[in-house]
What does this fold into?
Amino acid sequence: MTATLVGLTLVATGCDDDPTRTAVQGSEVGMPTSTPPSTAVEAGTFAYTTPGRVTLARGRQTLASVSTGDPVRFAEWTADGSRFVAASATRLISIDTATGAKAEVGCQCYEIAVAAGKVFVLDEYGGQDLAVHDVVTLEPAGRMKPSPGTERGLVAVTGAGERVVTFQINGDGARWTADVVVVDQTGGTPHKFGETTIASDLAYTPTGWDGKPKVAYVVIGTSGSSTGQSSVVWFDPATPGVQAETRNQELRALPPGVSEKDWNNTVGNLWWAADGTVRVDASTWTCSGDQPLAGPRCDKPAPQGQWKFDGARWQRTEEHGLTSRRELGGDLSLVRRRPSATSEETALLLDEKGALAPVADKVGRVWTPPSSRAKAPRITLPEVKNVVATTDPAHPYRVTLKWDPVARAVDYQVLTAPGCDLLPPSVAEYKLQKKDLGTATTWTHDQVTSGCMNYIVVAAGLGGESPRQWPGTRAWPYETNTTFAKARSRYFEAAPDPGDRISTITLSPSADHGIVVVRGFIRNKDEFTEMIGDHRGFGTDPYASAKVGIAWDTATGEIGVYVHRSCVAGANVPKPWVAGCKDALPIQFISGAEMIRDDIETPVNYISAVKRPDGSIRVGVSAVNSWGSFLGRINARVILTPSGDSYTANFFGDKFPAWEIYRYPRTAVIGSVRPVAYTIATRDQTSIDDLKGYPTMCFGHGTEQREGKEHPMSCM
It folds into this structure.
């Protein structure tokens, strides 16, 4: 089914004589409206309407009876049944089910939802926001726009515990459709549960047949004046997902002699029973038009009956024709009898251990509180043990779970809760992430974008569910490292800055250890080097200024070379500026570039890069100032040798300028406090005269500096 609810039709009467009063005291019981709600509803509680009145009762005792002036449009209980809230077009009424204390306010009410200690009022068909009232006092508490997507307006709302279920028009036409969107009043993300067409009854219970909350409603489908079929749709408002349409094969009760094409059915009076099943009154009917100019003749070939649905199938519970029954607990039930098949009013009787006592005649609508007595499945399976969450830097945004099998388990479910706080999330904060895993004991969670994700695994079997382990298992997934992305951009993807040059070649790929960058730059150590140099000290930023930089993407084998333009003078204080700049000279890849002597005046920056059989790489540099080689060339040879997931660096070359070698892993833990960059080695500079002096040989250490700080080489 792709359609899901919208309009709600409830028949009742009621309103007080003075629609301008706000928050009045319950005069019939003498209790103030500020009385706190009860913590639980007592057995035998129910509410009903008669012409001009709405009444709350417990067994044979009337708790409150309110005179009304126009029909009650809608009514709901709080999730725990502690208050009953009814609304007419002009009046909103809230009654405490323990004491009968009530509050009333004037109201322009089309539909209402009772959720999270508030009453949410839809003023009119197509309204775009909801008026909010306190559920006890009915004092105004502002307005709420349920969620994006209400431009065409709302057609219905209802409460579901801490959530408001909204029905948002999503198209135009003679027969509108609406999105069913659940809005969590505790701050959760709104979730769409599908679409709906015309619908009638709507009901919520915090404990359905499986012990979980449920919303159900009746969808009415028609194709003409004499055809129609109704079906019941349900969903779990606490678990984002889709709606389920129940099979109506059993509800059809197709009698012999009535063909399939002539069969129609009506479903109504939907409510939740104490055992967690959803109940309806259902009847079948058929119409025929024997006379061309006469309207169709319709009758009911099968008697009306009451049915219940337990999550699997429909079963008939009453076959008394015009009678339906509701259990109230404590050996009490309500029986309704219609005087005729066409009557909308019924006689209401209280059944106490088989003895019937009249309650009222001409009853229009009956409400019983959502059941908090329905029991969740018995926990007979042991807790799932050894839940292990694994993350892999090679697969960002992914967590793989494994756990020990549980005997007699036929299915597993995974629940998740984001959060990196020292105090782990409570069990109540976990939401269903994956179900129907069967007997598999591993599952991979992709597209995890939260910095930390916490997991609980629940086993299910014929005996029920296993306990939910706490505090759960926490994982820190990986994401693309920002400094890796910047290094890719600087050396391989983005255009160079004005006056700079880039050139690339590709060697054979290696194990993926990210990008390694080797840079020669003039460090700011005195006024002279500040004036002619790169105006900085050692630093891991891939975009930091350098005379020449060579990047190696270890996974792809790409080599990228970046050469800056040459400027006579510059500084970063008081703000960056340069003067006397000349564009960088061309880049040429050759063999043994470091061997190009200082007296070679060719205006070219020579680079070499060779992959060796042991997995190491040798990089040679002979870079030259764009203004000429009169100061000498920057000569260096760097050998990077694999060491664990990183590299050891050996250096041979001029003592000037400074050199730095960094590694940028491809991925990093999501939400890392700082960009991830590791220092393989650094080598400081002497003076510019050493560009033409004797070279030096330096050796790096076997481990990289994980904090990104300086990591000096040992030189001789």
